[in-house]
Specification:
Length: about 525
C-alpha cells in the first residue's frame, strides 16, 4: 500500500501556472474549456457544487459558466479563503482540519469527497446532562490507603462535564489503587461546589478548595503537591475514561526513563484520532468505550512523542522531583505548561510516550472557553522562546507521523468489529448518500477515487461508520499480496464491482484475485 503523492500531471502544471492570478485563470477557462472542465472534475467539483452567484460575489467578477467559476476557485479563490458556497470557508476548514492541509488536499474538494462522510465540519453534539449526585454517591470508595497514584482533576466551571469526568473515574474498574483529587479553583457555581463537598464527605474524592482562583496551572500544582511520593495523572474536567484505563496508562508510564504518557483521544493534537491534529467532533451515538476496548485489544507498542498532551497525562514522580512542577508564572491560565514541562524533562534525559493501548474522550476547549485562542497563541510564542526549536521538533514528528500505524490499526479494528457482512465496491464520484433498501445487514465499503495530489489512487470509505481516514490507499500498482492482506484484515467477503474507468478496471481485476486469495487463505487457516 502506498500513501505517496502521484506524479505531477499536465493538469497540475496548468493549474499551478495560473494559481493566484485571477485574470490568468479566467483566460484559461475561456480558451481551454475542455481542459478546465477536466481539472474541475478531477477535483470532484461537479456542476452545482460551487454556487455561481455566491462565488461571483466573493470574487468580484462574473463567470460565463459553472466550470469557469469552479476553475477560478481552484486557481485563486481557495488560496485567498473565498467561500465557494454559503456556509463553507476553506480557511476555517483547513484550520479545523490541519491533516487535510498537510496531505495537500484542496479543502472544499476534500469536504465534498470525504469530509462530509467523515463528519468534518459538523456541529459538536450537545453535551449530555450531568449525572445525578445520588448516582455518584453510589460508587464504591477508591482504595486511598493503598494508592500509588493520584488522579488530579482541576475544576472551575462546566458542571455537567466535570461530574461526568468524576463519574467515569469512580466507575472505572482498575487494579491500580488511586486517590481522586479534585481541586476546586474557586468555582462560581454553588451547586457544583456543594456536590463536590458531598463527594468528599462520602470519602469518594479528596477535595482541595482554593479560596481564590489561582488559574489552571496553580490548581494542578496544588494537586500534584498533595502526596509527594505518588505518581500523578492529570485529567481535564472535560474528559471521560473507560474500563481499566488507569492500569493501561500506568503500564505505559512505567517504561524506562518515561516522564509522561498520554493516551489517544478524539481531541489531543498529535495524539488525536480518527484524524490526527484535529478536534474530532464525534456524533453522540459513537460507542467510544468500544474504541477504547479495541485499542486495548490491538496491543500496539507505545510511541515516543516530543511532548505529552495535558488533557490526560500520567507523570512520573521521579521526574517531578528532578525538574520541578509546572510553571505557574509563565503559564498560569493554562495551555503550554505541559509542553514546557516535557521539554524540560527531555533536556534532563527523560522521554515521553503515546499510550496507544487506550482511548480517552475529550470535549476539547471546554476548560477555557472563549479565552482559548489567545492562550494558545501566547503559549506557543513563550515555549519557542524558552525552548528554541520546539516548533521544528514537533513539525518533524508530524511529518514522520510514527503514530500512523496505531491510527490505522484502530481504523481496521473498527471496521472488523462491525457485525455486518462487508462488501467492497467502486464509487466514481464519492460516497453514496442513500442507504440501499434491504441491505441493512451489509457494510458497504466504497473504493472512492482520490483527489489531487493522489490522482489514480483509491480510498476505502465504509458507509455510515464515521471517519476512518487512516486506511491505506490502493491503486493499479498495489500488489495482490497487499490487497489480499487488507481485505482479510477488514473482513471483506464480497466484491460488488461498480463503475469506473481503465484504472478502476485494472484494480478491479486485481481485487477479484485478491478476494479469492484472501478467502482461500482464511479457509486454510480454519482447516477447511
Amino acid at each position: 500500500m502506498s500513501d505517496r503523492r502521484s506524479p505531477r500531471t499536465t493538469s497540475d502544471l496548468l493549474l499551478s501556472a495560473v494559481r493566484g492570478r485571477s485574470g490568468g485563470a479566467a483566460a484559461i477557462a475561456r480558451v481551454l474549456p475542455d481542459w478546465t472542465r477536466a481539472i474541475c472534475r478531477q477535483h470532484g467539483l461537479l456542476p452545482g457544487t460551487v454556487d455561481l452567484a455566491h462565488y461571483s460575489h466573493w470574487a468580484g467578477r462574473s463567470f460565463s459558466s459553472f466550470d469557469a467559476a469552479a476553475f477560478h476557485y481552484l486557481a485563486v479563490g481557495s488560496g485567498r479563503g473565498w467561500s465557494p458556497r454559503a456556509g463553507f470557508s476553506p480557511a476555517d476548514y483547513c484550520r479545523q482540519n490541519p491533516d487535510v492541509a498537510l496531505a495537500g488536499y484542496e479543502p472544499f474538494a476534500h469536504w465534498l469527497r470525504f469530509g462530509r462522510e467523515e463528519g468534518r465540519g459538523a456541529a459538536a453534539p450537545t453535551d449530555p446532562p450531568p449525572p445525578d449526585i445520588r448516582h455518584l454517591l453510589g460508587h464504591r470508595r477508591p482504595d486511598m490507603a493503598h494508592a500509588t497514584v493520584d488522579v488530579v482533576i482541576p475544576v472551575y466551571g462546566g458542571r455537567a462535564l466535570a461530574l461526568q469526568a468524576i463519574d467515569s473515574v469512580l466507575g472505572s474498574a482498575t487494579r491500580e489503587a488511586f486517590e481522586l483529587v479534585v481541586v476546586d479553583d474557586a468555582s462560581p457555581d454553588p451547586l457544583l461546589r456543594s456536590e463536590l463537598q458531598a463527594l468528599a464527605a462520602a470519602g469518594l474524592v479528596t477535595l482541595i478548595e482554593n479560596k481564590r482562583n489561582v488559574g489552571f496551572v496553580g490548581a494542578v500544582n496544588r494537586g500534584v503537591a498533595l502526596h509527594p511520593a505518588r505518581d500523578i495523572v492529570l485529567l481535564n474536567s472535560d474528559a471521560r475514561v473507560f474500563g481499566d484505563w488507569l492500569d493501561r496508562l500506568m503500564t505505559a508510564l512505567r517504561t524506562p526513563r518515561t516522564a509522561t504518557a498520554t493516551p489517544l483521544s478524539n481531541a489531543a493534537t498529535i495524539l488525536s484520532y480518527p484524524a490526527t491534529l484535529c478536534e474530532n467532533r464525534l456524533p453522540a451515538d459513537v460507542d467510544i468505550a468500544l474504541w477504547d476496548r479495541l485499542c486495548a485489544a490491538n496491543d500496539m507498542p507505545v510511541v515516543e512523542v516530543p511532548t505529552g498532551v495535558g488533557f490526560c497525562m500520567a507523570v512520573r514522580r521521579a521526574c517531578l522531583d528532578q525538574i520541578g512542577a509546572f510553571d505557574e508564572e509563565l503559564f498560569g491560565r493554562g495551555y503550554g505548561e505541559e509542553n514546557d514541562f516535557c521539554f524540560r524533562a527531555t533536556a534532563a534525559g527523560w522521554r515521553h510516550v503515546g499510550a496507544t493501548g487506550l482511548f480517552v474522550w475529550h470535549r476539547g476547549g471546554a476548560s477555557f472557553g472563549d479565552e482559548r485562542k489567545t492562550l494558545v497563541e501566547a503559549a506557543q510564542s513563550t515555549i519557542e522562546t524558552l525552548h528554541p526549536g520546539y516548533a521544528a521538533t514537533v513539525g518533524r514528528f508530524i511529518r514522520d507521523d510514527p503514530l500512523a500505524a496505531a491510527r490505522r490499526a484502530l481504523d481496521v479494528a473498527r471496521v472488523r468489529a462491525d457485525s455486518r457482512r462487508k462488501r467492497l465496491s467502486f464509487e466514481s464520484f464519492g460516497p453514496a448518500e442513500v442507504e440501499t433498501p434491504g441491505e441493512r445487514d451489509v457494510l458497504d465499503i466504497l473504493l472512492v477515487p482520490d483527489l489531487p495530489p493522489y490522482v489514480g489512487q483509491y480510498r476505502l470509505v465504509p458507509q455510515g461508520l464515521g471517519a476512518v481516514p487512516n486506511l491505506p490507499r490502493c491503486g493499479p500498482t498495489t500488489t495482490a499480496d497487499s490487497l489480499a492482506a487488507l481485505l482479510s484484515d477488514l473482513g471483506i467477503v464480497e466484491f460488488g464491482g461498480g463503475k469506473g474507468g481503465a484504472a478502476a478496471a485494472a484494480l478491479s481485476r486485481k481485487l477479484q484475485g485478491a478476494m479469492e486469495r484472501s478467502t482461500n487463505g482464511g479457509a486454510a487457516a480454519n482447516g477447511l
